Amino acid sequence: MPHRPRTFVAAALVACATVGLAALLSCRSEPPGGTLARLQQRGEITWGADIQGGEPFLWEDPADPSKIVGFEVDIMDALARRLGVKQRFKQYNWSNLVPSLERGDFDIAMNGLEATAERAERILLSRPYFVYAETLAIKKGARYRTLADLAGKRVATLNQTYAHDLLRDAAVEIVLYEGNEEPYLDLENGRVDAVLLDNVIADRYGCNRATVTCLPGDVARGTYVIGIRKNDPELKLAIDAALDAMVADGELERILTKARLWDARQTEPPPPLPALSATRPRSFDGNQVRLFLSATVVTLGLSLGAFLLAVPIGLLLAVARVYGGPLASGAARVYIELFRGTPVLLQLYVIYYGLAPYYAFGPVEAAILGLGLNYGAYEAEVYRGALSAIPRGQSEAARALGLSPWQSLRDVLVPQALRIALPPMTNDFVSLLKDSSLVSAITVIELTKRMTIAGAELRGWLVPGLACAVLYLALSFPLSELARRLERRLSRDQRPLTL
Amino acid sequence: MISVRSLSKRHGTRMVLENVTAEVAKGETIAIVGPSGGGKSTLLRCLNYLESFDGGEIEVAGITLRPGMGSREASTLRQLRTRVGMVFQQFNLFPHLSVLDNITLAPRVVRAKPSADAVRHARELLDRVGLGDRGASFPHELSGGQQQRVAIARALAQEPAVMLFDEPTSALDPEMRDEVMGVVKDLATGGMTMLVVTHEMQFATDIATRVWVIEGGTIAEDGPPAQVVDAPRTAVAREYFGRMKRRRV
Predict the structure, then answer these.
(1) How many domains does one find in chain A?
(2) Whether complex ipTM tops 0.90
(3) What is the pLDDT of residues A431-465, one digit of tens each?
(4) Residue A495 Cα, gap to closest chain B Cα (Å)
(5) Inter-chain CB pairs, A–B, below 8 Å
(6) Torsion A27-A28-A33-A38 (CA) sign
């Protein structure tokens, strides 16, 4: 059995990688407490936030892009002053704020962090510095009035928000976005029926749109708090005391008023900490396995669809480049350079959001189209190389037998080119399988996105990460094996290679 | 069957063919000889328009060829190629197809011949070139001589009126030349109109009805082998045949 050793080596490699990954993930050690004393000695408090959150939280000052402004910057300035230190902002991806805080990358996390029971289990939460309301936005003229009216409809929100928890408990189809603007864009384009988000975001990004209405009445209220590591209780006390003092002497009101955020909610008794969401997953159970498997189907379906599109596009472009006149080959070159030279993420955005006013593709259609058009450019170069590698005598013989250009391509040249192109095509397909994770940017939940959701919800990356890796391998390995067999079958008409 | 009138062709400033005029009657076998670079292959390739030319006119099997024929005359050119078969020095069999598929491809695709008929005809042709048992083989499994015989069968499958051979034995070992030349000879005896670019003196003397000596883009000498090979009139021909004879000794 000649395959035995190879299979064994592959299995051993997978095992090694798995053990290594597990070791890496479990060796995470808690940074020591006593941060308050240390930061006073250092004279500086560092805070993690995501500048992508944008207005009004924090953003780059248009007058001086090296400066960060926003109401949270103002609060941090006041807080630091009261603690007798300076504040320093550290840029982090919003969804990684809590794990990064736990790692000790910064002293506190402050960026529209909602007080939830889940967060309270994991980190210390300061007293609130802002009371927000969950606001339901719908298209003008729609009849929905409450979340209950939206049963079975598509409702948009951001991942890992309190609104996400609320929607999970309602009987709606949740559509997850990464940015503040996109949910409302899709509401306008008719791809979702409603958006549930903080009034802070809704007021700035949604309610001011011509075709959008924000329903009066708060779906729920919640608070923004500062996140502090579990082993820093004295820092939490100091921050709470400083925030209390800011409320007492009116500085907080001044800051929020300046940001046009002050409203009656701020003086009413703050809402209690919401109860633990009943539907939030607690462990990697059968339900999670089902979700992962369906995400795997999405990844495979997307990749197959995109590749089935990329192959004919690539062939067409390659034929135009190799055999076409100056016009056809020039046009093919422009296409290839354009799609190969710009990020696929940008192309997905243009197709999904940019073309929406003219034609609103569904997310899966847009994903297949975007990835297919992009990979078509890569395939084109593979096929061009393969076509050029076929001896000139082949097309001459076809021509001398009376075959038309189309017939010689179909029966003589392309079959030979595809055989040459098969190994790089397999390569591209495996790469496409993984690149397909980019489509989560246009709300498709595929395998990688499922892993990040599960990782956040289950408070751990090890099991979701392993599940994700195993499933990707389960997709790519059989495919490479299939390609290998196909290659062998196709090369039965060739002498074996020797050196 | 073939009529070449004032044919000329340039590569840049160099004249490859210069005012070539010739006639070939049905059933003739022309051996085209001469030094390398003289224009032999180019003349042959102009006859089925694998190469275009710059001046003059060719009439082959009832089809008239002029300079600058392109995609607009595509169907005329395809028709021409079903009437003119070509065999290449490098065989140019399709490596991804079996011997039988190599032969039946053009009849099926170009002339929409039913598959069963094409296969039956292909088997007859394979018998004729002595490879009746190799239909299922792939080209790489055959010797050079066998491949060239398949290539001849492939060209014959279109039932051409004229066959063009471009140095059919030059890429072969001496022992395989005879088997290929045997097939070419059978064709000649069978009455096929043929033009054969070759360096095989024996073929020129024994089989050809006429010999053309091509040098410097023109037909320097044209006549029966007894006259051209044995008693050449021009210096070019004398020198060429002298060299060929010395090599054979």
Answers:
(1) 3
(2) yes
(3) 999 889 999 888 898 999 999 888 877 877 889 99
(4) 7
(5) 71
(6) positive
